[in-house]
């Protein structure tokens, strides 16, 4: 088995050995397995599985077809290997009866996803799992729950699983979704579900501010979309006066080949002073969204007494990936600024010493220099400018203040980022340092 997996690994370096074994297990044991079925079961991006399929084309009856059938020879070889299944997600065990009830509801009201709102309907099994996640994590009895968008019908799923919250308020821009939820609630005798048609780009009605104990959102997967919906969630969440916490359930998906996006999400969450109490990878599965493996992760965020909304929000006229905006690319861009204080006059007046310290700083943090320039100013000040392969770095000296100002803009995660301040302190033999990270 090791030899086969090692061979396949050569053409699929981004996949773990256990993932390769898991895909082979699915190919061997599944009936009528198609390309999209493999995406849904694994949660891997379409392009990743396309490359995998090409790498094992010699094993397939017809690699050009959608149906994935192993040749008899390889069925026998793989059967002899005792392949193990792989836990593609920690998604709870499916409740087929409840999922079917939800499937019947969705079918009856002919609900279809609207691409202009970035809608990709979750599978019915996922909608039930989302409701169970809330019930398992929180004491919902007597609590107020807000759903910021509910094309997955989590509001209905909560009552299908027997939850008994005080109220559920669904905020959504889509009138068809809201109408269906109202009708289904009335049919099922659910009295404590309310709907509000709401465009999240507008400020929320003041009567809903700080009202809810639990907020659930599956926002557009753009940087501005995440920030906007999370900001609205914090605004609607009641203040947490202790450490038992109010909760936000945030869903976000991206390809595992774009870890910088996951890091950016963590940065955004940190800005709100929310605690990531749990994160379950590929928890939710969707119909469509193959580019991200038809899956998203759930972030269970606990509010603290320090949780706050953001005041530096930008223009949110385009928050959807459907829009033709550069934001869709969701680049990783961070800026670090440092005031290095108490630097000796000898260091500040020596061009060679400054260049040596700056060069060593780049080496320590693997910042590859493409070009550099040093500029002299009156009063013995220097500015050292470095053009880096994926960022820019500037050092400016202030001899009269015994200080060096450092500005680093990066388009990718920095090696040993937590040690940036310590490195500058040591290299410039400084007494103090002030640092700030700008998103």
UniProtKB/TrEMBL annotation:
Keyword Lyase part of the UniProt annotation: yes
Any Pfam family: BpsA_C
SUPFAM superfamilies: S-adenosyl-L-methionine-dependent methyltransferases, S-adenosylmethionine decarboxylase
Keyword Lyase: yes
Keywords: Autocatalytic cleavage, Decarboxylase, Lyase, Polyamine biosynthesis, Pyruvate, Schiff base, Spermidine biosynthesis, Zymogen
Xref: Gene3D superfamilies: S-adenosylmethionine decarboxylase (3.60.90.10), Vaccinia Virus protein VP39 (3.40.50.150)
Cofactors named for this entry: pyruvate
One GO biological process term: spermidine biosynthetic process
Location of the N(4)-bis(aminopropyl)spermidine synthase C-terminal domain: 98-294
GO terms, molecular function: adenosylmethionine decarboxylase activity; methyltransferase activity; nucleic acid binding
InterPro entries assigned to the protein according to its UniProt record, in alphabetical order: AdoMetDC_fam_prok, BpsA_C, DNA_methylase_N6_adenine_CS, rRNA_MeTrfase/Polyamine_Synth, S-AdoMet_deCO2ase_core, SAM-dependent_MTases_sf
PANTHER family noted in UniProt: RRNA N6-ADENOSINE-METHYLTRANSFERASE METTL5
Entry protein name: N(4)-bis(aminopropyl)spermidine synthase C-terminal domain-containing protein
